[in-house]
Amino acid sequence: MSLPENENQVLLLHNPGCSKSRATLALLQERGVEFEQRHYLEAPLTRDELSELETRLARPPGEWLRRGEKACRDAGLDESSEGAAILDAMVAHPILMERPIVVRGRAARVGRPPETVLELF
């Protein structure tokens, strides 16, 4: 599934191996939210989707970059890295994207803590 086009569409960018992502999944299910899941490690976001996600999050990519990942060091990223370089690295290494992220229409939130995504509803 691509990014939602309207307020009635909800997408969970999910990594089932992540406890915060599983907690966010459970939170949405408990609340009866209808949503699609995209396992972004298996179906990575395109560069255009990541750029759009940056807009919907209203946060620069450096704020939703997983800096502790080996791929971050291998890509030569640090606090001074430009947003474009970070997005390019996320295309090549989807594990660098913070998780989970819930997108509803034109807005998105990183689920850290998971309850943060409830701001969308």
Uncertain spans: none
List the quaternary state of the chains.
Answer: single chain
Question: What is the helix/strand order?
Answer: EHEHHHEE
Give me the Rg, rounded: 14 Å
What fraction, in percent, of the residue positions are helical?
Answer: 25-40%
Q: Choose one word for the global shape.
A: globular
Percent of sequence in beta strands: 5-15%
Write the CATH fold name: Glutaredoxin
- Look at the structure and name the CATH superfamily: Glutaredoxin
How many helices? The count is 4
What does this structure look like?
- The chain has 121 residues and is of the alpha+beta class.
- It has four helices and four strands; from the N terminus they run βαβαααββ.
- The chain has helices spanning 19-30, 47-57, 70-74, 83-92, and strands at residues 10-14, 36-39, 101-104, 107-110.
- A four-stranded mixed beta sheet has the order 2-1-3-4, sandwiched between helices.
- Strand 1 (10-14), helix 1 and strand 2 form a beta-alpha-beta unit.
- The protein starts with 9 loop residues before the first strand and ends in an 11-residue tail after the last strand.
Keywords:
121 residues, alpha+beta, four-stranded mixed β-sheet, 4 helices, 31% helix
Sequence-ordered SSE layout with sheet pairings:
Layout: E1 10-14, H1 19-30, E2 36-39, H2 47-57, H3 70-74, H4 83-92, E3 101-104, E4 107-110
Parallel strand pairs: 1-2
Antiparallel strand pairs: 1-3, 3-4
